[in-house]
Specification:
By secondary structure, this protein is an alpha+beta fold. The protein has three domains: 127 residues, no CATH class; 178 residues, no CATH class; 163 residues, no CATH class. 54% of the residues lie in helices and 7% in strands. The chain has 24 helices and ten strands. The strands form four sheets. The protein has a four-stranded mixed β-sheet with strand order 5-4-7-8, with helices on one face. The longest helix is centred in the C-terminal third of the chain and has 32 residues. It is extended.
Amino acid sequence: MKPSLQLRLTPHLALTPQLQQAIRLLQLSTLELHQEVEQMLEQNPFLDIEEDAATAFESPLAQTLADDRASAPATRVSDAEDEGGAESAELAEVAEQDFGTTAREDWENGTEGDDFDGIRELPERSSSSSGQASGEGDDSDAHDRRAVGIRLQDHLRAQIVGMRLCADDQIALLALIESLDDDGYLADPLEEIAARLAELQGVSGAEAREELDARLRCALGWLQSLDPVGVGARGLEECLVLQLRAQHPPSRELRLAIVVCEKYLPLLARRDLRRLCTLTSSTEAQLRAAQAMIVACEPKPGRPFAEIEHQIVVPDVIVRRSGRGLKVTLNPDVMPRLRINELYAHAARSQRGSGLSGRLQEARWFMKNIQQRFDTIVRVSKAIVERQKAFFTHGAIAMKPLVLREIAEELDLHESTISRVTTAKYMATPHGTFELKYFFGSGLATDAGGNASSTAVRALIEQFVQAEDRSRPLSDSRLAQMLEEQGIQVARRTVAKYRELLRIAPAAQRRAT
């Protein structure tokens, strides 16, 4: 084969580091962006926080940075030397000679005192069932336990102190306590716990294993007698039975409630009281009394001790009514207030050729990309609000069909960019705080020849269910017929899918007997 030279022209897209960073910052959530800013502040000495007067509200990142504020002014230069970076060490030396070693770090973000404060906290998991089972006093005690952060295992170990147990019994009981999950249930079978304990203690032989198994079964009885009632159960049925026996005196209704828990709990969940009456040979009045006992129990006895993390949604944009229109503004709590540290920048200009100019340019790129990120978010949000004006007046029932391509064509952006912007970004509206993706949805055909948004259809289904007669709940087929009467053509299986997305139980389980 004879060698030859060929010249080809092929299109090639080269992503510069600046463009790669811009794309990555665009898809980050608010929390991830704050973490990225913190990391960049630690790595790049040219990047600093803009000084501002303290305000009544601070962003989550502000609180984190404020904890280190006392040590920050005197450690900016020394930190660079300790990290061993040649450029940072040289920069610190020049800065110390020319300007001293003062550097301030502060991040103060305020919020407008208007309709929205920029932060909405999601509701915590309800503890009403716990309050019904144990009364107001126990409920307040549970609140106190959560406030001081007492773990379930610590609460149980404190009760062991008053029990006169030998060393082996204490070890067995502690092994069971450590095997509890967050809900207070025994996470592992007794056989597995016994095997682990035997391995740790070096127990061998059939007789020794039998003795250890018996000791664990005895320890399980002690565990289930501790507070909270129902702890140490190996399933929901056993948990409910433990609470029923501890909270009610012996009666026919109590025996009936225990039988239902042990054998017929799925039927009770489906509210099939007629069949339960037949299987348990009881009257409807007796069964309802037993049902009331069961409903008052706490299905998760460890819930009051669980660490409840507050899920906070910080919206990126805020929509307010302004006259007859709508005003879209950026939430000031999510915008980092960064600046170039002039002290270090002057030192870099005086040391040209030292390699510091690259770090300075990196800091400028980072600030520019963050600004571009929020500009894009605001542009996309304004386009969404313009398309979904009816939602802000009438709610979800007035949502229109909208796809990413429509916003991309309007703003001359790629669909992938719109997808990144609308993921994990939130908008605070007069109707609540929603992810930007919430405003997008496919269309369903209507008799008028137009399309109805899937979000609006789900809102209609929810309205129908809320207004239904609980003695005769609406089936999926009936819901489909009602939607068709509204001019919206929806299949029964589509209605079932939307109902499940709304976390609405089937008609049989919604029936009030």
